[in-house]
Amino acid sequence: MTSPHPDSEAVADTDPSVYRTLLESTRAIPWRIDWASMRFTYIGPQIEELLGWKQSSWLTVNDWADRIHEDDRQKTVDFCVAQSQKGVDHEADYRALTRDGDQVWIRDVVHVVRHADGGVDALAGFMFDITARKQAEDKILQLQRELEVLSYRDSLTGVANRRMFDTLYPVEWAKARATGEPLSLLVIDIDYFKQYNDHYGHVQGDECLRRVAQALDSCASRTRDLCARFGGEEFVLLLPATDEDAARNVAERCRRLLQHKEIPHARSGVGRAVTVSMGVGTIVPGAHDDRNVFLDRVDRRLYQAKSAGRDRICDTET
């Protein structure tokens, strides 16, 4: 490796202003705090451009702490003090307050300078403006959350999808078992839907699915209630803390809402409007009950309703 030119070494050794010029020409903001007095012995002039506070106003660590956003202040100060007392180099991300009341995301990179005996002499470091990076990270997190929501939503009807039901059903089953509260399920199928599609076409069939889903979803009105598209023209309502009578009432309300919508169905075998068949079940899960067995039982009741002529509710087994 070629050695630096001896003249350049001499300049650096004899002229400390070279180092200061280099430090103050970067976008990173250098600083130094004396540990004993907790006073700034230096902070780069770039701080004024970034935060608006004059370079001369940074006197003690209190000036630094007071200019941290109140939501980040205590945890940031506690973390930095604890790490510094241990003599550990560290980094901290926090929102700094600007003089005009705005905020900037800062990454503080801290080096602990020690005495010969190992005690802390000073803290030195750099502040970096990471606002753009944080905004990009926040945008990515927002998109991830939106994608997660979409992954649990049926794209055609807008109600929850089978994945959402499969996620929440075990949770509500466990809650019902722990609390002794009843849990109800409604499994619902649109009557003669194949004939509907054959007669009106798939575009109109999709619209029919959306209108039925909206009606069913409006009946799952409590926060924990769930209406999900189970597949094809089949839907399921998951109703926590709902007894048999209440579940039957929800089922009847679903049928009435669809009757009021009067969605034409010229090829139905039970009338001239879209109808549904339903299986309804309620259980207080015990230690030996199986949620899949219960779901299968309610599903069989749906097919009993269909076998009995459709456009009806079955909540018992024959």
TrEMBL record:
Q: Name one GO biological process term.
A: negative regulation of bacterial-type flagellum-dependent cell motility
InterPro entries reported for this sequence? Diguanylate_Cyclase, GGDEF_dom, PAC, PAS, PAS-assoc_C, PAS_fold_3
Q: Where is the PAC domain?
A: 90-142
Provide the Gene Ontology terms for cellular component: plasma membrane
Give residue ranges for domain GGDEF. 181-318
| Span of domain PAS | 15-74
Q: Which domain of life is it from?
A: Bacteria
This entry's Gene Ontology molecular function terms read: diguanylate cyclase activity
- E.C. number: 2.7.7.65
Q: Check the record and name the NCBIfam families matching this protein.
A: GGDEF (TIGR00254), sensory_box (TIGR00229)
Q: What is this protein called?
A: diguanylate cyclase
